[in-house]
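User: I'm putting together notes for a lab meeting next week and I want to include a structural view of one of the chains we've been expressing. I don't have a solved structure, so I'd like a prediction I can at least talk through. The sequence is below, exactly as it appears in our construct file.
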Amino acid sequence: MEAEMLRLEQDILQEKDKLRQRELTLRELLEKLKNEEKQNEMHMYESNLSTKISIFDPDTGKNMSPYEAYKRGLIDYSQYIKLQEQECDWEEITTRSSGEQMLLDKKSGKQYSIDEALRQNRVTPEQVRRFREGKLHIAEFALLVAGETKPKPIAPLLSSTTHLQNFSYQSGTVSSSQQEDNFPIAGIYDPSTDSRMSVRSAVTRKLIDPITGQKLLEMQAATGGIIDISTRDRYSVHKAAERSLIDNAQLQRLLNAQKAFTGVEDPVTKNRLSVGEAVLKGWMPRENGMRYMEAQYLTGGLVDPKRAGRINLLDAVSSKMIDGTMARELQEDVNYAKDLIDPVTKEKINYKEAMARCHTDEHTGLLLLPASSNSQSYATYRPVNNPSNSLYSSLHY
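Assistant: Thanks for the context. Below is the predicted structure for the 397-residue chain, given as structure tokens.
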């Protein structure tokens, strides 16, 4: 017993010695770093910015690198290569001698002049200001400065930093079977105060009714993730809850909608099915599945969790993702469910009609549904074409 105690005491002393040694090493490194920073200040000013691709698996709740996702079979080789190409470290450099503002891609070693991009109108002073304030994503700003692409004001693509399982990630050109992935209705716009807000905030302020708020969030989840209107980033349902973009009471409904994007697991074969396949096999209610597919169709095409990009209806039928009846229903507006309430007119509308009535934010290009704080709040009105107000009785939190 005494020998054991002595051994433990010796182990503890050794660990304490190791800790002291680590503290000394850390102090030396910090001192060295301070000296290097002072030397760098004499030559240039640097601001380091990094873009990392993070793939979130909603089934496990874990983040992984593109390589880990590829090894696990969540993305194919071509997707892995594209993601690796997008993953880069940027350094903004301002030289002391000339004051030239540069962006350095530390991965490739290429340098791009911000000042030259301004002179050649590849970027605007407003975009530079938004970048400085953190409102314009570094990956987007770098592409503008390099002159490789220009953002689309109404239909922006998913940003390079992806927080969802990246089955529909795409870059560059797309094949004929892959459609462009556009954003759904992202938030709410109050024209009386010229303010923008999240769906959750609009429901809290009673600018929109909770049913409409729930449906709008479901369509976001079904098409790629819950949207942060301040950054345009999209998040899985769990991540969105952590960031207070949604209410925890909405979690289960939104997780069900998210499966339309990430795939529905066949309980028999364990294969990952698209929402159309899940409906055809009876693993998802047809009414829900059609609503999710309407949103996907209206924002660029259907989602196949086993393939990158969006899929047009012809290819979806050919690959048996949907049948001919589903394709016809998606093409005809009359079949769209009128399950939203226009916050301004108080009439029942479908999702396509809501998108058409949206205000396009001039800074982000996101679609925002108008709802005035000066008008009657949802708590004191009933939809004009639903006197019984039965729609509200169906909401359960």
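A couple of points you could mention at the meeting. The mean pLDDT is 76. The longest strand covers residues 44-51.

User: Perfect, that's what I needed.
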